[in-house]
Structures are given as C-alpha cells and as structure tokens.
Amino acid sequence: YVAKQTRTGVHVYRPEDDQDTPRRLALLTDLRIAVEQNLVRVAYQPKVDPATGQVVGAEALARWTRADGSVRPDEFIPLAERTGLIAPLTEHVLDSALTACASWRRAGHPLSVAVNLSPQMLTDQTLIVDVVERALSRHDVPATALTLEITESGLIADPTHGVQVLHSLRALGVRLSVDDFGTGQSSLSRLTELPVQELKIDKSFVEDITHHPARQAVIAAAQQLGHALGLHVVVEGVETRAEFDHIRDLGCDAIQGYYVARPLPQEDFLAWLESWTAARAASLTLTGHHH
Ligand code: C2E
Ligand code: MG
Ligand code: MG
Ligand code: MG
C-alpha cells in the first residue's frame, strides 16, 4: 500500500478504493460499448475425465480486448458487477456458450458447457431465471447440458434468498456447480443444504501439489466430501503431467487446466477436440497392443 498526501492528511491508498481514476472511467466507457456491441468474446476451456481422457465439457470464459491490449476478467468482471453491465454481459456469454455447445453437439460431440454467474445475478430471482430460460429456448441444447458455476462466497452472500433462486434454476433442469471451492467461508453443513450437483476445487490447492502434503490432503478430503454428498468433483488449474497424474489417482471426475488445454477461441475448439480425441484413440490402441 502506498501512503498518499491529501488535503485531509495522509491516508492509506488501496487500489480497490480508486474507482474514479481516468483509467477506470475510460475502461467503463469502453466496456459499456463492448457489451452493447457484443464485442466481448468467449473462450472455451475443456474439462476432461482423467480416467478415460474423454472430453466431457468446457467452461465459457469472457475475453475482452481493447485497442491497447486485452483486459483480464479479474479486472472487467468486477467492474461490470458494480455498474449493472453484468446482466447483459452474462446474457451474451450464455448465448455464445449455447451457440458453441449446439455446434459441438451437431458435430457429434455430446459435450456440456459451463457459464459463470456473478453473485449479483442471484439477487434478482425473476431476472436470472428468465435470462437462463430464454437463452435455453433460443438454442438446441438440453438444459441438462448447461452448468452454472457460482463461487462459494457468492452462494453464501444471501443464504435464504440465494437458495430459493438456486432451486428455481434447478427447476429449469440446469446443473449447478460451486466454483473456487475451498476459498470461501461456507460451513460444510451449509453445503449439504444447497441444491448443487458439482464441486470445483480451487486451483490454489493444485499449485505445486506434488511438493505440498497439506494441499494433497485438502484436495483428497474435498474430493471425498464431494463424493460422499453425491456430487461430481472437478479440479481446476492442473498445469503439469505430475499434477494431472496425482489428481487422476485421487479419483476426481474431471480435470480442467493448462495441462489439457488453455481456454480456446470457439473457432479453434472443434479442431482441438478432434486432435485430442484422435491422440487419445491412438494411445488407447497402443496400450491395447500389450494385451
Ligand atoms: P473461474 O471461473 O474460476 O475460471 C477459471 C480461471 O482459471 C480462468 O481464468 C482460467 O483461464 C484459469 N485457468 C484455467 N486453467 C488454469 C491453469 O492450469 N493454471 C492457471 N494459473 N489458471 C488456469 P480467467 O479466464 O482469467 O477468469 C478469471 C475469473 O473471472 C473466472 O474464474 C471467473 O470467476 C471470472 N469470469 C470469467 N468469465 C466470466 C463470465 O463470463 N461471467 C462471470 N460472472 N465471471 C467470469
Ligand atoms: Mg468458473
Ligand atoms: Mg474457479
Ligand atoms: Mg475464480
């Protein structure tokens, strides 16, 4: 933190307080235009079943490039959340994701797609349920092939009301996932009350896992908890072969991370999927020769 001299004296400068700097105002103006004109792109990161190597789905991740370079989601998503742009942005990401998912399914790949929901989207029940229902009606994708990821902290922000919204979303047939699991403040008993089908263990527990017995224990425990509750367990942020092998051996249901693939533009996804599937078939054939 930097101490800043002002008329009222010295105070501590925190970046999160700095909401009206020229850069922020310019960002906000550009983001508003980008959302209005559908200039925010969506990238897709595959999720793979580590036991079989089969691709089971992909997460849709918003991407925004301005004239002077790309802006990270960690910067523009919170800005959108504070300025009412998150609802139209979410609708655009949902539409893009369902368009992509429908095209994969037409090409013979029965994948699911996951979209991130900001906690703000859960505070207005009719809004989010309508947005999701309308998006599903525009595309030839079954509701069961859509997963909505909500962070653990977002799920406990407004417990009673939030749970009602989750039940309404569930009634549409979509799947619900707890994102960044392990980083929030939720009690384990709260988790059992949520109508969710999936736990996504946060990537901070994967980093350097082979050298950190404590992280190994946390992942193993989170995974056992998820399975005991009948949930699908996904581990995100897997970057290396060693991490992949370690997590596969724990028995999780899906792995997402740079080791499998970085988030890909929609136009590259099918080509990646076909080459991954061919490589997997080739490696299975090779193993087959030994039997
Ligand atoms: P998230 O939902 O937890 O998404 C996973 C993040 O981890 C993504 O960052 C992804 O690119 C990154 N990642 C995936 N594999 C690896 C890996 O092996 N190593 C490392 N170091 N990182 C990996 P990204 O795309 O920068 O997004 C950051 C966050 O922004 C997301 O975290 C999500 O919370 C938010 N976000 C992105 N798109 C949207 C959106 O459309 N709507 C909302 N509400 N939030 C979004
Ligand atoms: Mg996510
Ligand atoms: Mg996450
Ligand atoms: Mg995150």
Give the total of beta strands. Answer: 12
Oligomer: single chain
Percent of residues in helices comes to: 40-55%
Radius of gyration: 20 Å
Report the principal-axis shape: globular
Q: What is the average per-residue confidence, as pLDDT, rounded to a whole number? A: 89
Q: What is the makeup of the main sheet?
A: 10 strands, mixed
Structural classification: alpha/beta
Give the low-pLDDT segments: 1-11
Which strand-content bin applies to the residues?
Answer: 15-25%
Total of DSSP H or I helical runs spanning 4+ residues: 10
Topology order in helix (H) and strand (E) letters: EEHEEEHHEHEHHEHEHEHEEH
User: Kindly, what is the distance between the CA atoms of the first and last residues, rounded to a whole number of angstroms?
Assistant: 62 Å
Q: List the ions, cofactors and other small molecules found in this model.
A: ligand C2E, magnesium ion
Organism: Paractinoplanes pyxinae
Keywords: Membrane, Transmembrane, Transmembrane helix
Protein name: EAL domain-containing protein
What secondary-structure arrangement, pairings included, does this model have?
Blueprint: E1 2-6, E2 9-13, H1 22-36, E3 41-48, E4 55-66, E5 69-71, H2 73-82, H3 86-106, E6 112-116, H4 125-138, E7 146-151, H5 152-156, H6 159-171, E8 175-181, H7 188-193, E9 198-201, H8 213-228, E10 232-236, H9 241-250, E11 254-256, E12 264-265, H10 266-289
Parallel strand pairs: 4-6, 6-7, 7-8, 8-9, 9-10, 10-11
Antiparallel strand pairs: 1-2, 3-4, 3-12, 4-5
One magnesium ion binds at residues 59, 116, 149, 179.
